[in-house]
Model the fold of this input.
Amino acid sequence: MPAQFQSREWRASPRDLSRVGGGSGIHDDAQAQELGFDGGFVPGASLYEHITAEMLNQGADWLNEGRAEMRFRRPVYHDAEVSFSIDADEYTFTIRGDDDRGTRSTGSLALDHDAPKVPAGTPAAPFGAPLGDPAQVGVLMRIEQTLDPGLFDEMAAITSFPRESSDGHKLMPVARWVNPISMIYEYFGPSTTVHFASRIWHHSPLYEDESFSTSGVITDFSERRGNQIVDFTALVAAADGRPIATIAHSSVYRLARQHAAEA
Done:
């Protein structure tokens, strides 16, 4: 049964706090502008945290039973004001801008099927080959992460993400762990990726003092309008083995305009 929540609309100015330490890739103004964008993007995980925060602040048990699917249509730029809306009747959300570009992201807040499985086993070592070889499909990857909580309070203040759980534990903001692209960076090292779509099945909260792992496999490579896309499925788990979330993720790892510029 989907989590229960109420319809609501609100305005916010999402921010990219990776700029504090020097943004990279598509989140860096200079690199994004070289690719023809107005500036660096706010990460999709940060936008999703705004939705998650609203669910939690309404009292939904989202980090244990929430399920979401989202698609990113256009960038949200750092500190640009946008409108968020949640429709409890349709189980959907929308992020819109005020300009003629309109919708930035859409999604559903209930998935009608079980989470995909990530295989167990010994992970491969990072690849020496660039991303895109069909032989990379199905190979198990894993990274371990321990994060500095120094910016957690500041990040949570931007999204209204509640830092304390009902049992008194300090929650790690969702944006810090929900994007599994770090696993792809560790294994292939691309400098620029653009979040295209995700499906997320939440299993348990992740707490501030916990380290965690992300395990996953690439499931497909595809092309859309000249953009090259990698699909992969990942399982985020706490150090004690507790599953946190399963994520089916799609990212553009080579933009059509990059290929055109290099041709």
Helices lie at 29-34, 44-57, 62-65, 152-159, 181-188, 256-262. The CA atoms of residues 196 and 251 lie 5 Å apart.
